Amino acid sequence: MFSYLVFAVLCASCMAKPALVHYSYSRAVGGGSGTSFSTDGEGRITAVRVWEISNAYITGIQLRYDYIWSARVGRTYGTVNELKLFDEEVIVQISGKFHSNYIYQLIFVTSRGRTLIVGQPAQSSFNFYPAHPDAELRLLSGRYNGNGITSLGAHWGVVFMDQNSNSTKGGSE
Question: Which part of the chain is the Jacalin-type lectin domain (predicted)?
């Protein structure tokens, strides 16, 4: 009798829809000198700020999670460029240019096809995108020094919760 009970519980747990987590990492590009960083925040990314030196390289990056800006990475020297996302809009691709010393260009692409293009189209190209089609940008990591961003990687994620609860996207647990 006990074995039937264990079997029934096992079958019931197999039939329950588990919360699925899809996570991927776009490996960092660039030289990698300086201090390491990782952006963080609660909720979805709702805006991006990028600072650049005209005709040169990216000096700083900042992400807004829901309504709170993360700590700035790098420095605020140069021109600031900003992209505010619409409701339910997410970042689905990051491209750009890099060299052994700095990130020279960043192109953020959203789920609505909008872009933020910052920096100079010079040096080697990179293209970051999630491995899962429903994933979105969750955080950036890399390195920076006193002048600018020296390397950059992207972390993508999506969490599907049970349909009986509120659907939550954006976790990378």
Answer: 23-158
Per-residue pLDDT tens over the stretch 85-105: 999 999 999 999 999 899 999
pLDDT in tens, 112-127: 999 999 999 999 999 9
Q: What is the DSSP string of the chain?
A: -HHHHHHHHHHHHHHS-PPEEEEEEEEEEE---SEEEE---SS-EEEEEEEE-TTS-EEEEEEEETTEEPPPEE---SEEEEEEPPTT--EEEEEEEE-SS-EEEEEEEETTS-EEEEE---SEEEEE--SSTT-EEEEEEEEE-SSSEEEEEEEEEEEEPPTTS--------
The pTM (predicted TM-score) of the whole model is 0.81
Residue 143 identity (one-letter amino acid): R
What are the tokens at 124? 């080697």
- Tokens in use for 97? 């240019």
Domains and CATH numbers, the chain: 19-160 (2.100.10.30)
The 10 Å Cβ neighbour count of residue 134 is 16
